[in-house]
Specification:
Length: 153
């Protein structure tokens, strides 16, 4: 008779909050001038190579004010004063990205460029060519000319 495995309870690491680590803030009490990476991106900013200046505690840790948050769901807070504007890609970089995406989304057999990446590594072609059916027109670019590059970025 096979033995049933017993689940072990994971040991919780209880780390007391100290001043030696980054300051921690709960979700409703973030001071002005600190934003998460996503909030920076919405404002057109990036951290600019700077490290986070504080920790955004997870929801579970808000009930334990004396313990430090060491869960993977915690967030990092960045200073708005140290943030820089997001870099804008040049036209040559956008063309290079478009060529790379065109190579991933164009079937080598039927030369159709689809709106999604194709399984070229495993199948070598698109599903309609591989399985022998006609694709629906809303899945690929409909053009009378050969496949041209369209900026994907």
């Amino acid at each position: 008779m096979p033995r049933t495995r017993r689940k072990r309870r994971r040991e919780l690491k209880r780390v007391p909050r100290t001043d030696a680590t980054l300051p921690e803030h709960d979700r409703g009490a973030i001071p002005e001038g600190l934003l998460t990476r996503r909030q920076l991106r919405e404002k057109g900013l990036s951290p600019g190579g700077h490290d986070p200046v504080a920790v955004l505690r997870c929801k579970y840790c808000s009930y334990r004010p004396d313990q430090s948050c060491n869960h993977p769901t915690r967030g990092w807070l960045y200073s708005v004063e140290l943030a820089r504007p997001k870099r804008v890609p040049t036209l040559a970089q956008e063309w290079a990205l478009d060529r790379a995406m065109a190579a991933r989304s164009t079937c080598p057999q039927c030369r159709r460029r689809y709106y999604f990446c194709l399984p070229l590594r495993t199948q070598g072609s698109c599903d309609p060519c591989h399985k022998g059916y006609e694709p629906s027109p809303d899945t690929y670019f409909t053009a009378t000319a050969p496949v041209t590059h369209r900026l994907a970025a």
